[in-house]
Design goal:
- The complex is a heterodimer of chains A (282) and B (225).
- Chain A is of the alpha+beta class and 282 residues long.
- Chain A has helices at residues 3-12, 20-31, 36-46, 50-59, 79-83, 86-97, 139-151, and strands at residues 71-76, 110-115, 127-129, 132-134, 165-166, 169-170, 179-185, 188-197, 200-206, 209-210, 215-217, 228-230, 251-256, 261-265, 273-277, 280-281.
- The relative contact order of chain A is 0.08.
- Chain B has helices at residues 19-26, 79-95, 100-108, 128-136, 169-173, 218-224; strands at 2-6, 9-13, 49-52, 59-62, 73-75, 143-145, 152-154.
- Chain B has 6 helices and 7 strands; from the N terminus they run ββαβββαααββαα.
- In chain B, strand 1 and strand 2 (9-13) form a beta hairpin.
- Chain B starts with a strand and ends with a helix.
- By secondary structure, chain B is α+β, with helices and mostly antiparallel strands.
- Classes of the chains: A alpha+beta (282), B alpha+beta (225).
Chain lengths: 282, 225
Amino acid sequence: MKTEDIEAILEKYSISRGGLISILQGIQSKYGYLPEKSLNIVSEKTGRSLVDIYGVATFYKSFRLKPRGKHLISVCLGTACHVRGGPVIAEEFERQLEIKAGETTPDKEFTLQAVNCLGACALGPIVVVDGHYFSNVNTTKVKQIINKAREGLDKVEIKTDERIFPVEVSCPRCNHTLMDPFNLIDGYPSIRVTTSFGRKHGWLRLSCLYGSYNTEVEYEISEDTVRNFFCPHCHAELIGVTNCPNCDAPMVSMIVRGGGMIQICSRRGCKEHKLDLNGINF
Amino acid sequence: MITLNINGANVSVEKGTTILEALRFIGFPIPTLCFVEGLTPYGACRLCVVEIGEGSSSKLVSSCTYPVEEGLKVRTASKRVIKTRKMIIELLLASCPQSKTIQDLASQYGVHQQRFKQEYEDCILCGLCVRMCEEQMMAKAIGFYGRGENRKIGTPFGIPSEVCRLCGGCMYICPACQLRCTFNQPEKAICGACANLSPPCLDKEQFDDMMCYMDPCVACEIKKD
């Protein structure tokens, strides 16, 4: 955590009393939680006492003071889910993950939380893992849900989803294809580019399926890092003209075979992308 | 100046004073826990309830936070006020029976039973220490955190605060943790009444507008004979 990062967030919002929640939200969206140090910096820069900031941060449930695990499991304990056995499900999760509700496993994989209503009472008891809903959960399903979450719920099932189709791309400068037919991702040839961040340099393979975010990398890159993308053949940087509308990182552009451009965000973890096929926007 | 009616008597007080200040100025004893002169009124303990208005439109308000209004009718010892105050003391006893301040209040107001689930908290969240720290000691080392039943008073992150000067003001002013009651029977919530000041005429007849704060009550003594 850097002081400058917090200062950048502070600049965006008013330092008056009304801006405090926005500032805390900004910090949380960057780090996933509110680090102790960041609150000290906010207190220093805004002239507001740490007690007030801590009071606000602990008052709202959406603010966390401890880092959250990779997967968030929300067990509904609203009235409808409660009468259908929600507490038993919550207990089963607590037993299997060996944590209590509101805690994170020591390996930082899972955070378990009890929520009050998810608005899907007819499907209760409901469990939501990383945005995926599991309905009519019983204790035997708990193990399966944990295993599925471990494997990654965002893995796309290609055959069942018609919105997903393969694209072939090439470098906008040398027009050499970027496809790598020897290394398959999702069963299709992968897109191979060179990435660099800081001093590290390595290959990155992207799935060529539009809508799939599966990748393989030589070096693990932490979330939120903005990387530079290069063509592995002519070594030109694959840089687009626009910035990501979501996170303001530069977009990376590649030519799609058959005419058109595809742009992806250079920030790891940001899923912003844009496909422009001869003037038709997707 | 603003004229208001307290227990049937018209009195004039400065604009901007609260009902509690007016009542105390004139001489009506109103019990308080979370009110201390020199700190901003907070209205947390609700012990200073009084009834304002008349008939069906009357309502209970905390006098420490209610500014006086022209023509306001205030009753300090109506049946409703006393009943509510007794209930508040009972609730305070339910959470903090070790406090001598609260036990004394219980004896004064003749609270002889405690019908709620007994807890043994150290804090009634009156916020005196928080205001003391902020307004008199200019430190802001402690504050409220959490919400609902998890609301607590403490320093940020539960670590010793850099701005705390260990002045002890918070402990000095606390009604719950200072003056530990010698109360030694944990199974019994009420210690055994050192004093009893509850108006004896309450259940006899409608004496809502009588000045029953006197002990023994003159009106009742006359009535007896």
